[in-house]
Specification:
This is DUF3077 domain-containing protein. With 80 residues, the protein is mainly alpha-helical. It is 65% helix and 0% strand. The longest helix is centred in the last third of the chain and has 27 residues. The chain is flat and about 60 Å long.
Length: 80
């Protein structure tokens, strides 16, 4: 018998792995933006690149916070 709706793709990565990978991509993007600013510091685009760098730093902090939340074990629930 054929399924009408296929199963969702199985992800071999855990949420923690996904957050770590996203953090690494954000760091790489931030490094590229910083390098672009260093190459053309007087360019009109450098102001936008500084804004991108700031936003990527904020994204990295949020991802690191999410990673900490994932790594902290859930508080044990009281047994009644």
């Amino acid at each position: 018998m054929l399924k009408i709706v296929p199963d969702p793709p199985h992800s071999p990565h855990s949420l923690e792995d996904t957050i770590l990978q996203a953090t690494e991509y954000a760091l790489c993007a931030q490094t590229v933006a910083h390098q672009a600013i260093m190459l053309q510091p007087r360019s009109p685009v450098s102001v936008l690149m500084m804004a991108v760098t700031h936003e990527l730093e904020t994204l990295r902090m949020l991802l690191e916070s999410a990673l900490i939340q994932v790594q902290v074990p859930a508080a044990p629930r009281p047994v009644h």
